[in-house]
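Quick question: what would this complex look like in 3D?
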Amino acid sequence: MQNFEYCNKTKIIFGKETENLAGSETVKVLAGDRYAKRILLHHSGGSAARSGLIDRVKESFKKAGVEWVELTGVQPNPRLSLVLEGIEIVKKEKLELIFAVGGGSAIDSAKAIAVGAVNDGDIWDFFEKKRSADRALPIGTILTIPAAGSESSTSCVITKEEGPWKRGMNFQCNRPAFSILNPQLTYSLPPYQTACGIVDMMAHIMERYFTKVPNVELTDELCEGALRTIIRNARKIFNGAFDNYDARAEIMWTGALAHNGFLDTGRLGDWASHALDHELSAVFDIAHGAGLAILFPSWLRYVYREDMSRVARFAAKVWGVDGAFYDYEQAALEGISRMENFFRSIGMPVSFADANLDTSRIPELAKRAFSLRPVIGNFRKLVEKDALAIYEMAAK
Amino acid sequence: MQNFEYCNKTKIIFGKETENLAGSETVKVLAGDRYAKRILLHHSGGSAARSGLIDRVKESFKKAGVEWVELTGVQPNPRLSLVLEGIEIVKKEKLELIFAVGGGSAIDSAKAIAVGAVNDGDIWDFFEKKRSADRALPIGTILTIPAAGSESSTSCVITKEEGPWKRGMNFQCNRPAFSILNPQLTYSLPPYQTACGIVDMMAHIMERYFTKVPNVELTDELCEGALRTIIRNARKIFNGAFDNYDARAEIMWTGALAHNGFLDTGRLGDWASHALDHELSAVFDIAHGAGLAILFPSWLRYVYREDMSRVARFAAKVWGVDGAFYDYEQAALEGISRMENFFRSIGMPVSFADANLDTSRIPELAKRAFSLRPVIGNFRKLVEKDALAIYEMAAK
């Protein structure tokens, strides 16, 4: 186990009807030397508004005496231009807290605004690792799409239209002050978005699980248990239980754990698949979860020989593959195959062909993946020719 | 799954030689409107001083410009009189942070001082549930005995000599600002203390595991994985690997998770065994872990019919009992028997007789357990005659 530090300040408010606490929780948050009262309400303007959620949230703000300025227009793979607009508004209006309603896109957009509002200079510098941030405005969230784990993570991923480039920044000050998670709000998610979220949270766990750091038994066990919980409940949902509170609750809470950092305490995760998918998302504007479903099986087939016993264990403990004690390689490959079949069973693409992506751009994708660094991945270090091979394996 | 709130502000600093960060971490903690510089250094004056740890900590304080007043004398089942002395010193010297070095006793004593220093009136009122606290001085810790989980929990248990009474208070403000966990510091723990700690952390998980709340799959999985991790690594240590870093690290990190509240998000734990043991500890001054080893198997044999499938699952997933699908009851009883054998294998008493406790005081123990409330436990509600039966089952 490696030395580590872990601290997660986000308060989670979980359960039925908890969105009605938006106002009362906001006014408990210290913004500098006073409690937050003037906020930026940030969302897509789409389904959360149509469903009446935004109206309920505003009602809750009114009751608590919270004033808001609204900034809508967040889209999947959230854009830098909207972040810049948000920073302007927050500075001009002297707002004290950024309140996001939505999925990872709305929350990540809010995080970038929160950093930009109190750190002068070019916000994109943080995403290009030229600067680091240790302060931001406080953030509150209502999560409507369990997927990115942004509701209690340090992570924030933004797309710069010029390029386009999709890049992340990871700072402790990115963790929201509080996040409200009501599984009822996820009943109406379309199957495709539900599935994208499931793959995304599974990938967050698997990126951490595939490590070369030895003696990380507790977090191995926790990762495996979390993956089994997601898979079992995903099957329940896709068997028709789209409005099953308990299944939705398991998925939602596991999604937060998947990316809050606890599962990789003492470990060093891989993250090559995420890096490879960032290029897929940037070039084709495909949903993050769908991109990961396409890439993760091919990545694992490319690298499994690095530690066959770990991949066999993954097959046995997560996918119920028997026979791991006889033949690690056979078990490992069977596990990867079951993962791919599971992704397919919930309607995810598992190849470029499935998603109608243009394979002629693969060399460009491979080149882009190394624009900021010469090597990606830790379970196995990958260079451009490896990325090329993985994209090619995922082509059909 | 029940609605819940979860927030854990404690920063964990984990790994080799991390005790040298005591000073630099202390001066990062905000105490009111300034960073902490004047602190109370609180410990037993025993092994941590003899081993040279306290000297290293003082060196670290000096380097960081931290001034301290020292208060030693913490003992197992920490006493109210020392807490009162600590509160006096902190007020008189205008100290800004309480720094505990030791196990749960030192940390709990520090927590009580931290609350008492900024809340006037009788500190014991908090333990008798007459008042609740929402503020305390910040706390830093160096953990030397993985057991109580106090290093990142809301829990604080103190013994009032007059009675004697052993009672707890659980407030969010009890969570330390930071805790330093170096597994190397636990190599020198005597086997008996190591074993007491192992039982204590297992009990923290099992109290949460045995719930009547349905649909808590993620936390079921996490509890089981954490228990397996403790058992496997405890066996390794007691097979002679007392200075095995990796085994000690797994035990230490799992001990913090066991009681930080994450494992019972959405659940309602039982806690009858803890209540029954508080009387055992108060009357006989026996170590908490040893008392739990005596009581937990009897408690579970008394209550398992409440939910035979859950106890059978516990037997199968934690203790590897096969056959749970044929006969829940047989599997459940075999699981309890394996748990008892495991406790015995690491040198723990599993009966009053093993620990030479006076069984004639059992009626008094049963009476005491209900001095503050008419019922204990949630998996099964217990009244005085139930407590009497459980103590009697544990007698020999």
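Answer marked as accepted. Strands of chain A lie at 4-14, 30-31, 34-35, 38-42, 67-71, 97-102, 139-143, 155-160, 165-170, 178-181.
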